[in-house]
Amino acid sequence: MLYTAVTAALILDNDRVLLAQRKSGAQQSLKWEFPGGKLEAGETPEECLAREIKEELDIDIQVKEIFTAVAHSYGDRNILLLAYLCRRTGGTPSPRDCNDFQWVSLNSLLKYDLAEADLPIAIKLMGERCHHA
Ligand SMILES: Nc1nc2c([nH]c(=O)n2[C@H]2C[C@H](O)[C@@H](COP(=O)(O)OP(=O)(O)OP(=O)(O)O)O2)c(=O)[nH]1
Ligand SMILES: [Mg+2]
Questions:
Q1: Were 20 and a residue from 35, 99, 121, 132 both cysteine, which residue would form a disulfide, CB within 3.0 to 4.6 Å?
Q2: CATH number of the domain that residue 25 is part of
Q3: Which residues contact 34 (CB under 8 A, 6 or more apart)?
């Protein structure tokens, strides 16, 4: 089965990161994730992220570098999750196309019911933070 390319934004503000809660009824219903979405035809990951974050949370971001890539199988679906370090450049988040959002401190990340594919990303993010602290 092909792996679908999905982008995820790690929007950092000091020691906090912006998590979004997926809508009920959708895949991974009500799980928390790093917001983003599927790549569309002709779009770069950076363009995809800027579009998705505007659609889902109504904020503007600057996409910096790739942080990690995770290939994950949900059994019926395979995703290649591309996680980028990002910074909010404008706007105040509002849950436009997600159920909820929350700025979460890195040491509280694992208290959230994260989508399975996000666990390695969360763990790496927490590790890097310790390293630089
Ligand atoms: N954006 C995003 N998707 C994730 C994460 N973790 C994770 O398992 N996924 C899965 C959930 C979905 O099965 C898949 C695609 O994400 P999506 O539903 O956000 O795609 P999209 O925004 O383009 O929405 P749609 O047009 O398909 O409705 O990736 C994550 O951290 N961020
Ligand atoms: Mg999405």
A1: 35
A2: 3.90.79.10
A3: 8, 9, 10, 17, 18, 19, 20, 83, 118, 121
- Has the ipTM of the complex gone over 0.85? yes
Give the DSSP per-residue string, 56-114: HH--EEEEEEEEEEEEEE-SS-EEEEEEEEEEEEE-----SSSSEEEEEEGGGGGGS-B
Ligand 1 pocket: which of 2, 4, 31, 33 to mutate (most atoms within 8 A of CB): 33
Q: What does each of the 133 residues of the chain score in pLDDT, given as a tens digit?
A: 999 999 999 999 999 999 999 999 989 999 999 999 999 999 999 999 999 999 999 999 999 999 999 999 999 999 999 999 999 999 999 999 999 999 999 999 999 999 999 999 999 999 987 665 5
**36 annotated to bind ligand:** yes
Residue 45 carries which side chain, given as an amino acid letter? P
56 is annotated as contributing to ligand binding: yes
Closest atom of ligand 1 relative to the 121 alpha carbon: 31
Domains: count for the chain: 1
